[in-house]
Write a structure and sequence with these properties.
The chain has 213 residues and is mainly β. It has one domain (27-212): outer membrane lipoprotein receptor (LolB), chain A (Clam), CATH 2.50.20. 8% of the residues lie in helices and 50% in strands. The chain has one helix at 2-17; strands at 27-36, 41-50, 55-64, 67-76, 81-86, 91-96, 111-119, 127-139, 142-151, 157-164, 168-179, 198-199. It has a 12-stranded mixed β-sheet, with no helix packed on it. The model is unreliable at 3-15 and 203-209 (pLDDT under 50). Belongs to the ependymin family. One of its GO terms (molecular function) is calcium ion binding. InterPro entries: Ependymin. It holds the Pfam family Ependymin. This is Ependymin-like 1.
């Protein structure tokens, strides 16, 4: 009987040590880069992320289809509104945001691909323990594949590979992440956006990656 209890305890202990799907911090600030397989898009951005209020601020620059761009966008998912902001001209463009908010998280049905150390495990502070997960996401009229790497402690995003038939593979890398909001004002529309008129979308705004985020 004691042997059976011991085996059960060991089994439960092994399950507890196995990495589990997780959710990233609800409030984060940092930087990221995005590139696509077809080489049309390569961009860098500073981001402010609020999963509680479903708000994202992206200040990005890069190139799309051999043309450079610079954009400053505020995505307010609860209000269904997106602001394109220009501090240089003190102008603001307000458009509908007809997309669901997807928090940064590893889906519960994800499969663990493996665990590794980024850097070195030879000494303290020389490496970071990460978990890589893979799976599929059901989107509107299509299925997307993903492979996502997050830190073992804190579930901070590191890299994500995302594939759709339309865009091919897209790689997003996160760096300089800070848990919390470094500047909460980044998630509030500037005063000159108060009287911004609601504009209709004209075609596909392919030069930004907020739709790929």
């Amino acid at each position: 009987m004691r042997a059976l209890v011991l085996l059960l305890c060991l089994w439960v202990g092994c399950l507890a040590q196995r990495p589990q799907p997780c959710s990233s911090p609800w409030l984060m600030t940092g930087s990221l880069s995005v590139s696509t397989q077809n080489e049309k898009l390569a961009a860098f951005a500073k981001y402010t992320y609020d999963a509680l209020g479903q708000r994202i601020r992206l200040r990005e620059f890069g190139s799309y289809d051999n043309r450079t761009f610079h954009l400053d966008v505020l995505l307010l998912y609860k209000q269904g509104v997106m602001y394109k902001i220009s501090y240089r001209n003190h102008t603001c463009c307000k458009k509908s945001l007809n997309r669901e908010f997807h928090p940064l998280a590893i889906p519960k049905n994800a499969s663990l691909l493996g665990q590794a150390v980024l850097g070195s495990s030879s000494g303290p502070g020389q490496g970071v323990l990460v978990n890589t997960w893979t799976g599929q996401l059901q989107m509107k009229n299509r299925t997307a594949q993903y492979m996502s790497t997050v830190t073992e402690f804190g579930c901070v995003p590191v890299t994500t590979l995302f594939h759709t038939a339309k865009n091919g593979w897209m790689v997003t890398s996160f760096f300089n992440n800070v848990i919390g909001l470094a500047d909460p004002q980044q998630l509030i529309p500037p005063s000159f956006c108060k009287d911004a008129k609601h504009e209709k979308e004209e075609g596909q705004d392919a030069a930004t990656f907020y739709s790929l985020f």
